[in-house]
Amino acid sequence: MSYSIENTDHIIRFGTAAWSDLNTLLKSGQWSSIFVLTDESSQKFCYPIFKEKIKQLELKLLTIPQGESSKSIEWTQKLWEELSENGGDRKSLMINLGGGVVTDLGGFVASTFRRGIDFINVPTTLLSMVDAAIGGKTGIDLGVLKNQIGVVAQPKAIIIFPEFLETLPERELTSGWMEMVKHGFISNEQYLANCLITPNKANPDLKQLIWESVKIKNEVVTQDPYELGRRKTLNFGHTLGHAIESYCLDHRPENFMKHGEAVGIGMILALYLSHITQGFPKTKLSHFSEQLKKLLPEFRFDKTAQEQIISYLIHDKKNAHGRINFVLLRDIGNYVIDCQVTNAQIFEAFNFWQSLE
Ligand SMILES: NC(=O)c1ccc[n+]([C@@H]2O[C@H](COP(=O)([O-])OP(=O)(O)OC[C@H]3O[C@@H](n4cnc5c(N)ncnc54)[C@H](O)[C@@H]3O)[C@@H](O)[C@H]2O)c1
Ligand SMILES: [Zn+2]
């Protein structure tokens, strides 16, 4: 199973055939040196496979600790220095081999080093295959505040090889699944239903579902690269999701909450807000909240936690002119952008989340 997309400035390749395209690209001689950025796990599990696929090339390996805290200015600086000390120049290429942390950080480092060098994303988590590696958003966190610093820069290529998922822990897979579910909510009820039938590695249609998600994300960002309208829908579940993630980064141990898990809770909260403010059907609210809840670990937020989560909302990138903007739904695929809600409605949504069995 191999697929491809030709965008105006970059290609997306999916499946085994992707490797020969990557080899052709790498052998084109346009780059003076090739750096590969990994984190500890992607180095251990994916780099040996990667190296074998493109064994004839000389690669310079860079490795960061795994986890969200590597998306920092400290690691950005260390990587700039490593590039500089190891012969990186304007014509170097950076290959980001890893999950969303590696593609976000690596893309940012590459697009700022020497005012921007080329990079290629080779995502190794489900989340990065269907979402983070696509669309050109790169960046780092400012303390616990997510994605506050960054640039939009497209990779030269995105190489998706689903076999990397064999070593991915189930919890990470579920985290990525949430972004596929998000693509269903904003665009296609049938795809959403298909995603929820067997949301794990046993799904015989896993590769097909991944490719569908790649196409949805790519289509949305291609249609609206500057996030003036439709691209905002990719933030469904992310307004409160990011605030929950920041809250957990600040108040809980590292790795307490995965990005996709926070988005999963954020989507349930957004469905509830959609129901009370946009008339999203009650039957679908109950059905999809129950389905999602089953996939998420047990998280409870007391009133103080809820207040603190709300206080993080003001840092959300979607805000403008002092307003906190939500993406809500009238129905599946029928979205409303730039919605405002009251704090009382957010507390009510948290009560709904806590009431789910
Ligand atoms: N730029 C965007 O458009 C965009 C979109 C969505 C999410 N993101 C960002 O992506 C990040 C989350 O990405 P993520 O969920 O991939 O997290 P991650 O990069 O932290 O990866 C999750 C874990 O899986 C490990 N891992 C990676 N590949 C593996 C493999 N094949 N086998 C075993 N272990 C493996 C990693 O080492 C890590 O411990 C967040 O920072 C989020 O903000 C960005
Ligand atoms: Zn996300």
Characterise this structure.
With 357 residues, this protein is α/β, with parallel strands linked by helices. It has 2 domains: 3-167, Rossmann fold, CATH 3.40.50.1970; 170-355, Dehydroquinate synthase-like - alpha domain (Dehydroquinate synthase-like, alpha domain). The protein is 48% helix and 17% strand. It has helices at 18-26, 40-45, 47-53, 73-85, 100-112, 126-132, 170-187, 189-197, 206-223, 238-251, 259-278, 282-295, 303-312, 343-355; strands at 3-6, 11-14, 34-39, 60-64, 93-98, 118-123, 137-142, 145-152, 157-160, 326-331, 334-339. The strands form 3 sheets. The chain has a 7-stranded mixed β-sheet with strand order 1-2-9-6-5-3-4, with helices on both faces. A two-stranded antiparallel sheet has the order 7-8. Helix 4 (73-85) packs across helix 5 (100-112), helix 7 packs antiparallel against helix 8 and helix 11 packs antiparallel against helix 12. The protein is globular and about 60 Å long. Nicotinamide-adenine-dinucleotide (NAD) binds next to helix 2, helix 5, helix 6, strand 8 and helix 7.
Whole-number total of structural domains: 2
Number of helices, where a helix is a run of at least 4 consecutive DSSP H or I residues: 14
CATH class of the largest domain: Mainly Alpha
Q: What is the architecture of the largest domain at the second tier of CATH? A: Up-down Bundle
Helicity, as a percent range: 40-55%
